[in-house]
Design goal:
yeast vps74-n-term truncation variant fold; alpha+beta; 5-stranded mixed beta sheet; 18 strands; Cytochrome p450; 3-stranded antiparallel beta sheet; 2 domains; 28 helices
Length: 672
């Protein structure tokens, strides 16, 4: 007799799919996973005596609800059929529900404490006291280890298996994942085949799953639609393209063509874009199963002599690297450097001669200001004299190697080769500033953590990766943070009434001296915080994320084949009216209750999936503090409300070099 289990078969099957060493699920082709998930549902319904089956027909025994919504949804469809159908029919018919079943099961397992969901989309299984008491499994085992041990016993011993365990074994075998979990030889494969044949229901379900998985005519849903292609007219008549506003451009295309569409640039292959609230929702829930970031950054790595950097990592190393980055870019670490931010910001404003009547070149000044801050706080090095060359090389390399919008040879011109030579010089300075005797008693920063990790585990962070991680990464971050500050300065000049409210918050914080960590709480700069959130919505620096399809899947009834390059425009929703009221209006009140428009799937300035910005808390704080200091000391001449901003869209959004602002008044003297 089968033991009464508090978990259903789909839940235990999903737990078996989790690779606890990586935090990811074992990679199974999307259709195979869908079929196996529905097989698990049918297996559970059979154990609950709701259905039975033979080789040709699945029979309804009892249509009464099980009390488990996902199972009852499938049971209701089976009960609604006027005639019995074969098991293969139901596996294909119900496969459309598999994503909801998986996500609902994951949510339930997390709520019960059986799984822990970590930032970045990783999962681990836990020891669960209430479940251990109920099932009497060893106290030193997690739930995942307990289920794994049961299935291992089925395969590697001669016991007569529990029907539940034989069903799970059959499902793992049918979708081909069992060989990734256990080390199997010919004898053990024969044992698995025997287990799958012991009981009729196991043989029927596992065979049906196998047949549907391999049948090529069934791998495409009959409701799948051809991906629409964007017409040339739609491109050239979209005014946002000419303004460089990529989120608004793609938002309009998503309104016209739907959530999945293709664009064919001249003389280039067609590119597949995904955009809209349903896509953002899908990516948040399913990216870990169907997408990988492993390939799009490889060429950039190779040029820098590096391998397996954070943007291209998946699995256990990605999980480990994110934990390290989370420590470096934490709120606590930022607060430790708060006095430095104040000092560096004033130093920059003084050195650049900011005073009444001064004219700022917004792109240049913003990038130089943030680079001074970032390079001092991350690698204790001044790179101001190198920044122009570093930025030029970075931008061209991203366009050529990552975005793939320009031919590769344009990244190897004599000028580009000359610009790249600034990186060895920057690395020399960083190494010189991080000799052991110079780092005694100082706050540990990015360079200290990475150098220490390299010494402790040179395989995880090899020497070949240090140039990129210590020199190239701060340049990227300085550019992106500086470009965000550029848009902030533009809107501060354009919105003088709101800027006056920001100045009130700044004066309250700085009039009595520099605020400390406790004084710099979000409620003390609420207007500044919401102003920044609105700038991030209207001008998200990284507006498109690149991913490759790891497991073929169907999204919004569009089939995405294995290894397809996807351009996920997670920020298109920022300009879509079904996510934001009057989306083209600058409105900081949209982030107040009861509106809370940032709570839905539409707000995504930092990304959506496992590769969301690991330092978003740091970024937000650094920008907010910089805004407050600028507002405390200066007032900009207002821009006309109808000023039409031109945006440089590649490789990321930034104001153009032509944008200039004039300081109308200096409100306080800078300390000497």
């Amino acid at each position: 007799m089968s033991m009464k289990h508090p978990l259903n078969v789909p839940q235990e099957f999903i737990i078996m799919m989790l690779n606890e060493q990586t935090g990811y699920f074992h990679q199974v082709e999307g259709w195979s996973l869908n079929c196996a998930t529905i097989g698990a549902v049918l297996a559970d319904l059979s154990l609950k005596s709701r259905i039975d089956a033979d080789d040709e027909t699945l029979f309804l025994l009892d249509s009464s609800k099980t009390g488990e919504p996902e199972l009852d949804l499938c049971l209701a469809e089976i009960a609604s059929s006027p005639d019995p159908q074969e098991p293969r029919y139901w596996i294909e018919r119900l496969a459309v529900h598999s994503a909801d079943i998986i996500n609902s099961s994951l949510k339930d397992l997390v709520e019960q404490g059986i799984l822990t969901h970590h930032e970045g989309g990783f999962y681990t299984t836990n020891h669960c006291d209430w479940l251990a008491d109920l099932l009497s499994y060893p106290k030193n085992q997690s739930v995942g280890q307990y289920i794994n041990t049961r299935i291992e016993e089925v395969i590697f011993t001669d016991i007569i298996p529990d029907p539940r365990d034989s069903l799970i074994t059959g499902l793992l075998n049918a979708c081909g994942i069992i060989h990734h979990i256990f080390d199997l030889d010919e004898e053990k494969n024969k044992r698995i085949d025997l287990v799958c044949r012991i009981e009729l229901i196991n043989r029927v379900i596992s065979t049906a799953v196998s047949q549907v998985v391999v049948a090529p005519t069934l791998q495409r849903s009959p409701t799948t639609k051809p991906i629409p292609k964007v017409s040339l007219k739609s491109l050239i008549t979209n005014r946002h393209l000419w303004d460089g506003n990529m989120p608004a451009f793609f938002g309009k295309l998503a309104d016209q063509y739907g959530p999945v569409f293709q664009i064919s640039p001249p003389f280039q292959k067609s590119r597949t874009f995904l955009a809209g609230p349903s896509i953002n929702h899908w990516v948040r829930r399913n990216s870990r199963e169907f997408m990988t970031s492993g390939n799009y950054f490889r060429e950039m790595e190779m040029v820098c002599g590096a391998n397996n950097l954070l943007p291209s990592l998946d699995g256990a190393d990605h999980f480990r690297m994110r934990k390290l980055m989370g420590k470096i870019y934490s709120k606590a670490k930022f607060h430790e450097r708060l006095d430095e931010i104040f000092q560096l910001s004033r130093q920059f404003m003084s050195d650049q001669g900011w005073r009444a009547g001064s004219e700022l070149q917004v792109q240049r000044d913003s990038r130089l200001m943030t680079s001074l801050q970032m390079f001092q706080m991350l690698v204790s090095t001044n790179a101001q004299d190198l920044m122009e060359d570093l930025v030029r090389w970075n931008e061209r390399a991203i366009i050529c190697y990552v975005a793939d919008f320009l031919p590769r040879f344009l990244a190897h011109t004599p000028a580009m080769n000359r610009y790249y030579k600034s990186y060895p010089e920057l690395m020399r300075r960083i190494e010189q500033n991080h000799l052991p005797n110079q780092r005694i008693g100082v706050v540990q920063e990015l360079a200290d953590e990475l150098i220490a990790m390299h010494g402790h585990d040179p395989q995880f962070i090899p020497e070949q990766n240090l140039l990129f991680m210590l020199a190239v990464t701060p340049v990227f971050q300085s550019i992106y943070l500086g470009d965000m500050l550029g848009f902030v300065l533009y809107e501060m000049a354009r919105q003088p009434e709101i800027t006056a409210r920001i100045r009130e918050e700044a004066n309250a914080l700085f009039d009595g001296g520099d605020p400390g960590r406790d004084e710099l709480s979000p409620d003390k700069y609420d207007v500044t915080r919401r102003f920044l959130m609105e700038c991030l919505r209207l001008y998200p620096i990284i507006s498109v994320h690149l991913r490759n399809v790891a497991n073929s899947c169907v999204v919004e009834n569009y089939s995405l084949p294995l290894r397809e390059r996807l351009y996920i425009v997670q920020t298109a929703t920022h300009y879509m009216s079904d996510c934001f009221e009057d989306p083209y209006k600058f409105d900081i009140d949209r982030y107040l209750s009861p509106r809370n428009e940032h709570r839905g799937p539409g707000y995504a300035p930092y990304g959506l999936d496992t590769h969301t910005c690991a330092g978003q808390a740091w970024v937000h704080l650094q920008l907010a503090v910089t805004m407050l200091m600028i507002a405390h000391y200066y007032e900009f001449a207002p821009l006309p409300r109808d000023h039409r901003l031109k945006i440089n869209p590649f490789p990321a959004l930034s104001v153009t070099k032509k944008l200039k602002l004039r300081i109308a008044r200096q409100l306080h003297e800078l300390p000497t």
